[in-house]
Known about the structure:
- This protein is α/β, with parallel strands linked by helices.
- It has helices at 29-43, 76-89, 108-113, 131-134, 142-150, 152-161, 167-173, 185-197, 201-212, 215-233, 237-247, and strands at residues 6-11, 14-19, 50-55, 59-61, 97-101, 104-106, 118-121, 126-128, 164-166, 178-179.
- Strand 1 and strand 2 (14-19) form a beta hairpin.
- The protein is globular and about 55 Å long.
Amino acid sequence: xxxxxxxxxxxxxxxxxxxxxxxxxxxxxxxxxxxxxxxxxxxxxxxxxxxxxxxxxxxxxxxxxxxxxxxxxxxxxxxxxxxxxxxxxxxxxxxxxxxxxxxxxxxxxxxxxxxxxxxxxxxxxxxxxxxxxxxxxxxxxxxxxxxxxxxxxxxxxxxxxxxxxxxxxxxxxxxxxxxxxxxxxxxxxxxxxxxxxxxxxxxxxxxxxxxxxxxxxxxxxxxxxxxxxxxxxxxxxxxxxxxxxxxxxxxxxxxxx
Length: 257
């Protein structure tokens, strides 16, 4: 399969899915559709026992591409609905997944890293749930995935402030499982995936199914509320100000309208 945004390579029983949308690896509808397709193909491939999700460059994923409406010919509301349709399918992946986070994981990029079971990262990486700094409610199912991982109060702290934390702080919170040198992030993620792949595939998959239980359904339910609120808030002056401020790299001046 030929992709515009992805490269898929195999290391024995481990698949490496590498995303590339330079310079900031913003995620749009087309790119997310390719991730969905790759995940579905690898989920059905018995040779694949674990997956590593990585990206090229210094940024893991800087978030959703609001500048283009998330997709060619789509307005923001249309784009957001299709974007989340693709995003929610990623939680159906049945095999262990490791996110190799070598740089900034912001907004939807942060949410994408939380689809994985584990995260291998480095001190230079940053994580930010910057949604409220854009004038919108958190999305990508993060209202379920983030507190599930680090606890409710720590998730509230990150959501309300939109604060950017580095890899060291992320490991202390429990966001990052393994902290390595930046140049070794992908290779160490592959090593972890290969270690997992040594287990009996059926036993590993059923263990993941037990541990995650109803997570995919819970995420979908939460994301419907997230999406409805984001669509409403994207029509506000605060959202326009938040996006503009982000582009201009300045503090937003919100008015509550």
